[in-house]
Amino acid sequence: MNETGFKLAVVGAGMASAPHLASLLALQDRATVRYVVARSQERASAFARQLPHARVTLDLDTALADDNVDGVLLLTPPNTHLELGAMIAAAGKHLLVEKPIDVTTSRARELVALCEQRGIVAAAVLQHRTRDAARKLRQLLDAGALGDIHSASIAVPWWRPQSYYDEPGRGTRERDGGGVLMTQAIHTLDLFLWLVGLPDEVFAYAITSRAHRMECEDTVAGVMRYRSGCVASLHASTAIFPGFPERIELSGSNGSATLGGGRLVVQYMDGTTLDEGETASLGSGANPMAFSHHAHQAVIANFIDAATHGIEPVASLRSALNAHLLIDALIASSDEHRLMIVNPDSSS
Q1: Is 140 part of a structural domain of the chain?
Q2: Residue ranges making up the domain that contains 80
Q3: Are 340 and 329 spatial neighbours (Cβ–Cβ below 8 Å)?
Q4: What is the rounded CA–CA span in Å between residue 70 and residue 328?
Q5: Cα–Cα–Cα angle for 112, 114, 120, rounded to 5 degrees
Q6: How high is the pLDDT of residue 344?
Q7: Is the bond preceding residue 288 a cis peptide, omega within 30 degrees?
Q8: pLDDT tens, position by position, 68-114
Q9: 17 in a domain, yes or no?
Q10: Start and end of every Gfo/Idh/MocA-like oxidoreductase N-terminal domain (predicted)?
Q11: Mean pLDDT across the chain, nearest whole number?
Q12: Residues 6 or more apart from 144 whose CB is under 8 A from it?
């Protein structure tokens, strides 16, 4: 089999790499993996075994020195993204990085700036934006079909057993950048922000429940207010057994929309309805990998299109900063017990 299309290096071969491997196998007519780079020879070899052209190396420089490599899929722990991403950008390779961008907003901003300075396409693995139901809701909102949005809610009622957090680094600020907001709820928060934008003010309580022994928060309850007058509630947790699909609800002057687990239901005041997509498991329970790879496949395919044609990816790294800004404000509100202004020009 000859090498095809876009040439990739995959950096990182841990648990989170499984849906990416399935996606890359499905995209073999469009992309070729030339390198698998990891700290573990065993993990890298296991990942590369199914990819006919993949070379295994423990040295990122080897992959970046190959002029045939067009882009890099970065799947390492969040606290490594800035340094590795800087190397990738300096080599002029396009970058698709797993969420979050990094463990702090200041480090995330630095990586975004480096990528923009080098003129590479840089995107985040925020695959919820690619789901058919989410894209349909975005189209409806852009067209004003729901009218003026006056209230909304975000619910991420997930479950993770203590064994999940017993793995070194999980749920810590040093490795992950936080708890439920940065690691689990970030997908739904990002999707919500992609749909309706950043709020102006937030107030929140973030706690570590008795369900877990961990450094960071496993449960957050908060409220958000928009300049338009719209108010929104947030509840995110990994302490809700056995775990349920995440949900976004929007209420407007013309009707309401509920987006939950990949399914969109719209009910208009004139009596018409819309039902699109289907409810699916998105990793809400004890097994964090219990979900289909198809959305990952879509975000990788979109990244390849963007890099090949020089267009904006569906989840550009700069747009992914908004989730970091919101998470910062929610955690700061809880820490300081006060209302926080969500300031796009702040850093932390």
Answers
A1: yes
A2: 6-128+297-313
A3: yes
A4: 33
A5: 85
A6: 72
A7: no
A8: 999 999 999 999 999 999 999 999 999 999 999 999 999 999 999 99
A9: yes
A10: 6-121
A11: 95
A12: none
